[in-house]
Amino acid sequence: xxxxxxxxxxxxxxxxxxxxxxxxxxxxxxxxxxxxxxxxxxxxxxxxxxxxxxxxxxxxxxxxxxxxxxxxxxxxxxxxxxxxxxxxxxxxxxxxxxxxxxxxxxxxxxxxxxxxxxxxxxxxxxxxxxxxxxxxxxxxxxxxxxxxxxxxxxxxxxxxxxxxxxxxxxxxxxxxxxxxxxxxxxxxxxxxxxxxxxxxxxxx
Length: 204
Ligand code: ITT
What we know:
With 204 residues, this protein is an alpha/beta fold. The chain contains 5 helices and 7 strands. The chain has helices at 14-25, 54-68, 103-114, 180-186, 188-203; strands spanning 5-9, 33-37, 72-81, 123-134, 137-150, 166-168, 173-174. A 7-stranded mixed β-sheet has the order 2-1-3-4-5-6-7. It is globular and about 55 Å long. The structure holds inosine 5'-triphosphate.
């Protein structure tokens, strides 16, 4: 049995950390994963996530923080894409209603923008890009997505972010109504993380 692989997450989002902890614990690799928040993350110089794509922001974030701290550093840039809104909130998902806005304010803005939308216009997907880097070198960049629809009102109390308005038709539930296991099985983040682990087993 090989030694556990330690991964440091560079993120200020507690929802992401909780999901990655569960994903790491449930991973079915030949090696164990130990996942921790990057030590001292809150006091490191912040990375400016202003690139137009999720992949570029994830790569930039992982490279930036891996130059400041040792070990295998990974970062996730993720968000909600609504094609009928020209791709919004997209890479601006975290700041959609302003830099200090709450999750409920972001959801309210989205629901306002979508008022009167037809069924087809409610199509949406979550994207997750994950990049893994060490000492300023990229080891892997993976992305994945999950498709659903935006509801007219929020439902459920699990998950985080836009989960209460993201409806997954196959289960007839929003992402905030799923158990943590169900979300991790289906989500953009769960799928991207499993791709990352598969890529890692070839690199480490
Ligand atoms: P870090 O950059 O520090 O990791 P952040 O919240 O700023 O944290 P992002 O820039 O990647 O992260 O923005 C992601 C936003 O997209 C997040 O704040 C949510 O609003 C939304 N989002 C991403 N994944 C989500 C999910 O699984 N469920 C609901 N909303 C999600």
